[in-house]
Queue: 3 jobs
Job 1
Amino acid sequence: MKKESRKEARRGQIIETALALFAQKGFYATTIPDIAEKTGMSVGNLYNYFPSKEAMAQEIIRYVSTMLGETIHEINESALTTKEKIRRIVRFYFGLCEERPELIEFFLRVYLANREVFHDGCEGMICVAPFMTEIMVFFEEGVRAGDLRNQDFFSAFGLFMGYLGGMAFLNGERILPKNLEDYADEIADNIYGALKA
Amino acid sequence: MKKESRKEARRGQIIETALALFAQKGFYATTIPDIAEKTGMSVGNLYNYFPSKEAMAQEIIRYVSTMLGETIHEINESALTTKEKIRRIVRFYFGLCEERPELIEFFLRVYLANREVFHDGCEGMICVAPFMTEIMVFFEEGVRAGDLRNQDFFSAFGLFMGYLGGMAFLNGERILPKNLEDYADEIADNIYGALKA
Amino acid sequence: MKKESRKEARRGQIIETALALFAQKGFYATTIPDIAEKTGMSVGNLYNYFPSKEAMAQEIIRYVSTMLGETIHEINESALTTKEKIRRIVRFYFGLCEERPELIEFFLRVYLANREVFHDGCEGMICVAPFMTEIMVFFEEGVRAGDLRNQDFFSAFGLFMGYLGGMAFLNGERILPKNLEDYADEIADNIYGALKA
Amino acid sequence: MKKESRKEARRGQIIETALALFAQKGFYATTIPDIAEKTGMSVGNLYNYFPSKEAMAQEIIRYVSTMLGETIHEINESALTTKEKIRRIVRFYFGLCEERPELIEFFLRVYLANREVFHDGCEGMICVAPFMTEIMVFFEEGVRAGDLRNQDFFSAFGLFMGYLGGMAFLNGERILPKNLEDYADEIADNIYGALKA
DNA sequence: GATGAATGAGCTTTCATTCAT
DNA sequence: AATGAATGAAAGCTCATTCAT
């Protein structure tokens, strides 16, 4: 129906706007009036779409997690070697850091840092499950293929995502001497070196 | 001087209190009255020691960075192998996560996440230099000793700190199945595997 | 006309719904969306029937006053003794407290308490005249019949309605040890005892 | 101590101001900025004295109830006949309606009408106990002295307070033809007539 | 140095009302 | 008649910071 899709489109606009602002200025330093102004709608109307500022942030993390999860899902389903999959994931992640830095910044600076905002509604890792799941699948398939050492999942996960997140952070701080994407292969090698069987 | 040292002691108390609160509740959810109450002094008097809430956070990150840097300095100066040094650093970091989790949480959740708070006064990595420098020294000596591959420093740094930070985060979220310290050796091996010559 | 009567029916629905909500939650805690939802119509459409929230409340008090007035009118017209009429009025009032508590609660908690809402449009006692008039008639006929003392009308009115309202209030607060209707005869006696010639 | 008493005095000022405004405009139509302006202090400072608007209203009802209770206590302790005590209570009540109408209006229009405001903190009749208790004492002593019929307390209470409240209400609406105090003796007689043994 | 009352701007959220469809 | 998205003013409340004492 026309009406429904228009409302959905509006929701999408709000999410994208809020995502950009939260990523740039942080959750607390972004005000509802900020979001209203940038969306071009009134403060009151925002509340016709989301019941609270927190609910907006929670919707955004689900949105980000789903986007990340979808691409990694595709990589998982491909017929590549584990080593090559790592390379693809790293390149994808770093590509995103260049093209849609808001997604990564939101993840690192809003979701990971402001626990209290996600406490009710995103308990545990629910809101981030689509992404987590795919990383899990990647790792398990690598082990099953005999390419990766069968170690504790969280140790592998911490390496993988901590490493990528750390680089994204340094890139965001503009202290890397090179372009982030130029690190991709070296880093993929480091990860493979650490996890391989 | 007596007076000076008493004032310094008070400053130290405030820093420790604020550190604990910021780490626990976040920068924005911690109020100046919260800090005053927990320190046992008045709100007004706090401003005789620090000119603003931001200045307190900046002082804290310098304090944390110095503490971390000192221990890593000692490890750097020891006559251990690079592999063993990695193990020591990992154990020290994870030990801190258990014993003084505020330090790590502050670093991860306040310093890394709230850019705007540290924008004026902690530009670049100034406030975190004591720690960064020692990690740099560790890496350069490892390379010079022929133990580590001579790759871009930031790539190595991102691996090391991203990995440890990621594990600390997962531990803080209480989603690790094992005790953090039980991961130490496995993780030290992973790091060494990734960086070795 | 068909159209007219349908519109009237709708108005009636809205009045009953709003009456129930205002009585239950109070004038200010009841929102237009609340009323719209419970009526099953849209917010906008409500404004095709009533120009404002205040106008709705005013319409309701006229409606309530008319309903009360009609029954008292019947009692006035009957051939009963004054003492028996009092008994009937008290029973009728307490019966209403059980069967349609909204009417009484609206009167006590919305009309009597929120002066500002009825200021423009219900000045003085206009909106409540149908009810007041019948009480007046009852009293005058009681005096004319020689059953009641010829005292100031308002003094008698205050006794009668204050007493009944007070009991209705206590009943609404659920602090009466007995069922409200069990008090009816005792109270009718008290009133007669106070007013009789 | 100076400080303590000054703070208490301020609290008193706020209570008196808020009482006047609530009585005049109602709880919801009175805003915190209204109270701040009339008190001559800032909005923020009000919250150094009371944690919320509701808490202010609750404090006020305790204050009003205590004042009323004290005077009735004195009347109870006097050596007057029951009939004379009734006369005194009625006169005192009507006198208050003239001199401090806010007290009575607050009781009738704010406390009795806005249940939700007093729900948490004034459950049952706690906040109004000092007043209720004295009315209870009056009634019990009247029965013991053989002056009053031994009927259900609530029936007698409803008569007494409903009657007085009703007259106060009519007076507040300015529809009484005579001065309220001119009704006092007539009304005291009515009450005595209704309750006497 | 120490206190904590005082300030006031700013926050999130609500809601009666309007109006394009 | 009917819808419900949109408006915007205003509400209650918070809190970093100041300042008279």
Job 2
Amino acid sequence: MKKKITIQEVAKKTGYSTSTISRSISNPSVVSSKTRVKIEKFIKKTGYVHNYLAGSLKSGKSGFVIAIIPTLRLSIFSDYIHGIKEKLRENGFELLIGVTNYNLKTEEELVRKFVSYKPEGFIVVGTKHTEATTRLLLNSKSPIVETWNITDKPLDLVVGFSNFSASHQITDYVISLNYKNIAFATPTNEHMENEHRSKRRLSGFMSRMKIAKLKTTIFYYTEPMNHKLCGKQIFNQFKEHDSKIDCIICGSETSGTGLISELNSRKFQIPKKLGIAAVGNSDITSLLHPQLTTVDFKVEEIGIIAANNLIGKIKNQKIKKIHDVGFELINGASVVNQRTK
Amino acid sequence: MKKKITIQEVAKKTGYSTSTISRSISNPSVVSSKTRVKIEKFIKKTGYVHNYLAGSLKSGKSGFVIAIIPTLRLSIFSDYIHGIKEKLRENGFELLIGVTNYNLKTEEELVRKFVSYKPEGFIVVGTKHTEATTRLLLNSKSPIVETWNITDKPLDLVVGFSNFSASHQITDYVISLNYKNIAFATPTNEHMENEHRSKRRLSGFMSRMKIAKLKTTIFYYTEPMNHKLCGKQIFNQFKEHDSKIDCIICGSETSGTGLISELNSRKFQIPKKLGIAAVGNSDITSLLHPQLTTVDFKVEEIGIIAANNLIGKIKNQKIKKIHDVGFELINGASVVNQRTK
DNA sequence: ATGAAAGCGCTAACAG
DNA sequence: CTGTTAGCGCTTTCAT
């Protein structure tokens, strides 16, 4: 086992100073090509490995960016991370991921841990945090991007969409199809407690229904991440409900796809006997039949823009504090106009 | 903007030495509780943030583990990462993820970059790497776990399953249901080039078919990550094929779910008019109707065991070099016994 | 249980 | 274009 070789040895053996070695690694263009070639050859020969961590201690630039997400196991979040990661890679930053399981206290613990890594920026999901999280984040003096929601008072930057408007709009669309007895499915309160976004979606629905002067029904599910269970729970409430619901709007892509799957397995005809819509899209919706009518949040784009704006801020560029990426209506066959059917 | 405070200032202001401060942070139990409380209070008050990177430079332990995967956008890989991450977290390691897009040259570049982060271990997908990758990995002197395949000559450790056997077994099962004219769908050669696992799956199919003395048909797809496109391409070849195929085994969960979706959208009855099976499972299969009959690789378990074994090796424990986690047959309704139907 | 001293491996002024 | 110098902030023997 040969001993570890440092930049010092490379310097000694090649006859250059450590600075020149350092430069020829991190900024080759400032070194004469003769020198560079000689050094590179020596490095290749000996298999010297540059210690990035030592460098960042001195330079004060860790190159790390922290992204904190609720879970890695829903495709909306892995697509979002994919967007972030791509943008960071282009700019030479490295990503450290923290997973909260939708728990704000866990988010706090993650932030507490990650500040020790001296990251150059934070990208977090949501605009609601514990006081300690906020303090830690602000104290770090690094740029922060909040995502997946929009607010007029971000900690620093925000890139997202209005969960209220998204829900409002899908409800509006469902109403425009002449559905009259519409239910909204949402996580139970205890599961919403940490998930401000679900509440905003429920509000969006209620608000639009009030305008239409329609009666509202709420169904609940307890396992927001479990497609099948959401589907089953919603179906059970639907079945036992006394008045005749003609459309269910699910508060998430998870519950929406789960419900379609549940109904399919019961050969319950959609949209003939019941319309289904949702707030949120995923790669699954387009594989189901009928395809779910829903609102797509362009999560990868949120990731890309969040990373982009964060990097801009790191580089002291002037960045727009509030970026609303909006959303897009996905017109599936899971609802149909009630007049013309 | 208050200046950054270091361990030195904490030492000075509390009247202790830097060693004591350091200990009370990373190894509190060796410090008297009176001292610890005093220091902790001071830290809380001033918001001092420990610099983890500086510490690891001195201690020689970065705490980083590198995981390299083909993509983050297939749930099999995010579930796998989830398993790894969970185990690492329990043991105080931090995860750095590299994404290859199924390209071995990209894998090489990622490894080249990541060795500079002085990681304490590597977890890679696959047992096939470029020569340079192998050299870099071995040169790093860190433990390495190869995954998703099994080999009797791992670089270091391996945790996986036999792609050949998995494919062999699903073929065996399909044959046992008295299907006679079975096609196998696989990525085109140019897309397999870097993906040894697809070749092994094709071989498993061919081998079992040979034993059964059945004629083989191969269908190809060109975009292994695109569910819908795989499905369409396979369907087109099926439609234009002259002899009457009664079952298609798809080489991946992606193509399998894509094909079911495609057939559903054409109201093509499964398994009545055509049986569908696959090699590989994902969260989508159980939401489709009929549910895909396939082989499940227990990817999260692979992640957990890989991380576990890596950590064991880091801690100089004796770890079994080769760990075959096997696979499990998932019995969906996408195939049916041809005799009794 | 605590302190003093040494230095992990690198980068960044600054000088030439 | 290259070298000299002076640490980055922490951990870790080795003492006491």
Job 3
Amino acid sequence: MKYRLFDGDEHTHMNKNAYDIYTYLFNAYGPQGWWPASSDFEIMMGAILVQNTKWLQVERAMTRLRPYLTPVQIDRLPMEELARLIRPSGFYNMKAKRIKNFMVWYKRYHFSVAEVKKRDRQLLREELLAINGIGKETADVLLLYVFGIPVFIVDAYARRIFERLGFDMPKQYDTFRMDVERQLPKDATVHNEFHALLVEHAKDVCTSVPRCHKCPLLSICEQRIRT
DNA sequence: CGCCAGGGCCATA
DNA sequence: TATGGCCATGGC
């Protein structure tokens, strides 16, 4: 038996589960104040470094990278040197190249977040996705946490949590993303917190795939239609 | 020891 | 469209 997340009329209360989950998590954990970085550029680097890696490894890499943590310096850094610095994050050759690819794009905006923000949202997402090494999740992290655009980030944690709660999951990234976005206010702050809260919840209690019967979130989700 | 983490690309069918 | 191999470190 599975629960359906996104069936029915989107204007009925039956279709507000994503927002109910958000509300529960926010009340349980409080505001998270993400992304864990002290500058926009650090968020950009972190977004790439965290690909399929634990955050602890990103912190190690970031510590080594911090003396060079400005766009101009990273842009100047030889690929081999960059790879050496970010080694603890794993996949360091790939990621060094991906950072370089990203820098080529960012340079077109004169390393200015304000410049990028002038761009149309849809176009901006497409531009980011056109960079080799920037996939949908990484693009959405940048859109949300750097450029303040309200998007739902579909990561392994989000999939795992919704899966564990018994939802019949959309397979496609954008399908899942848009289904959730439809249920939340188009507010960057809400999406910012939601993603952070899902990560927090995942690290807290939802640490493995098998279904959890104790999670308090289940009582919220059980109000849903059964299939 | 083996498993896997806040992915993404590319080749193949 | 959908898998599978690949990239690589460090914690458990």
